[in-house]
Amino acid sequence: MILTKLKKLREVSSCRKMSPEKLAAFRDERLQLMIRHAYRTTPFYKKLMDRAGVKPADIRTAKDLIKLPLVTKQDIQNNYKDCVSSQFTEDQCLVRTTSGSSGKMLRVLWETDSFWNRLTMYYRCLSMIGYSPFKKLLYFLPVPEKSGFTFGLFRQMGLEPKTPFEEIRQHLLTFTPHIMAIYPSYALALANFLSSDDILKIGLEAISLNSEMILPQDRAEIERKFNCPAYDEYSSVEMGFIASMCRKKKNHVFTDNVILEILDAQGHPARPGERGEIVLTSLTNYAMPFIRYRIGDYSYFPENRTCSCGLPFPVIGPIEGRKDDSFILRDGAAIPAWKIYEVVERPLEDFGMDKLVLTDFYMVQRKKDLADFYYVKGPDFEDSYLTHLHAGIGRLFGNRLTVNVSVTDNIDRVKTVKRKYIHREI
Question: Percent of the chain having pLDDT more than 70?
């Protein structure tokens, strides 16, 4: 295992030193391997390519992907077993479930080697903003994971967002991390809790923001309050690490891990500077390939895709995704979306990471004292989930907000907005 980790670390590190031309050739080699593998071992992609009249040999470079149809999360859900490679079984893989915050829930398989690739790319993201061995990292995840990748060098601490702020404050003051990885909305709430003296004693060097779309004014406020720069990291359960900011605050696409297309409204490649839909193709996860996958985010390619930081990875514009709402109650309290996600998603963990209890949900605030929660049952649904959900709603809102809970077979029928999962109508 240690040799696998070292191999992945060396491989990921070597890509940083390639020329853009060599990196593009390396990307296309990986693409050819992935296309051949998907065609040979997944019935879903074989049927998709056969219907399109495309053979693996027709896909030689990233530009050739336009020959293939787009794939949605619903397509993967509907054809789940046919999307998993015949060379892998679930018990050979790590199983993760996409958050409802990024769309419909989906079970995703990661082969072990690909997971280590994903982990080394996380360290790449952090190193781009100043992280190095012997520096300390504090990160927030609903379920903190032990990386097993420290080699006695990488000092890190994982905390759950549900941890009381006073306890987090004590950890920050005693651990004094150099880098903090955190959700933007959570960072704002934490900054408002900490005193200026606390922040001075903690002495953060940089903040890595993840999992949510970040508005420019929010980033500026985070940087002002924590007195350090804040950078974006763009990742997903399906793809791993897609792009990350360097110290110049330019987003670099990890083309050794994914191919990122930007398409206009007609499905054609967008022109430089033209905002369009992001479509992704994974180059590293052979257990469950994702090819021309519509992830639901938007961006653009700038005219100049290079950066003075010296990295060979091409530059992309700001990522525009869904921005969920906070709920505003009669007493003036604002309940941020991340706290609502905690109530919805925390009970799902009790069923295990390999269980798909819900496949989709939507929560909408109709009045200051009334909201509706809609959910779609997954194959592993149990009524006990609703018991935990109601208890969480009670703890979060008390008697300040009544939440009606309803089951449906299609969330799109009840949504009033296309891309939000936590929505305030008032």
Answer: 92
pLDDT in tens, 236-267: 889 999 999 999 999 999 999 999 999 998 99
Q: Which amino acid is at 307?
A: C
Relative to beta strand 136-140, strand 179-182 is parallel
Say if CB 128 and CB 238 are below 8 A apart: no
Stretch (H or E) spanning 327? strand 327-328
From 261, 357, 192, 366, select the one nearest 31 (Cα to Cα).
261
Q: Per residue in 290-310, pLDDT tens?
A: 999 999 888 999 999 999 999
> What tokens appear for 335 in the block?
């309940």
pLDDT averaged over every residue in the chain: 89
Closest listed residue to residue 113, CA positions, set 8, 26, 193, 43: 8
Concatenated DSSP letters of 232-257: EEEEETTTEEEEEE-TT--EEE-TTT
Residues 239, 257 contacting (CB under 8 angstroms): yes
Q: pTM for the complete prediction? A: 0.81
Cα–Cα distance, 128 to 161 (Å, whole number): 25
Provide the strand spans (E) within 151-309.
Answer: 155-159, 179-182, 206-209, 230-236, 240-245, 251-253, 258-263, 276-282, 293-299
Spatial contact of 121 and 129, defined as CB atoms under 8 Å apart: no
Ordered DSSP codes for 24-46: HHHHHHHHHHHHHHHHHH-HHHH
Query: Residues of 104-143 as b/e, b for ≥16 C-beta within 10 angstroms?
Result: bbbbbbbbeebbbbbbbbbbbbbbbbebeeebbbbbbebe
Please tell me the predicted confidence (pLDDT) of residue 47: 98
pLDDT band with cut points at 50, 70 and 90 for residue 348? confident
Nearest to 320 by CA among 353, 350, 295: 295
Phi, psi of 340 (to 5 degrees): -70, -40
Place of tokens 């061995």: 133
Whole-angstrom distance, CA of residue 128 vs CA of residue 246: 5
Between CA 123 and CA 241 the distance in angstroms is 10
What is the rounded distance in angstroms from the CA atom of residue 401 to the CA atom of residue 328? 10
What is the CB neighbour count within 10 angstroms for residue 302?
Answer: 16
Query: In this model, does residue 149 exceed pLDDT 50?
Result: no
Q: For residues 398 and 375, is the Cβ–Cβ distance under 8 A?
A: no
- CA separation for the pair 84, 120 (Å, rounded): 24
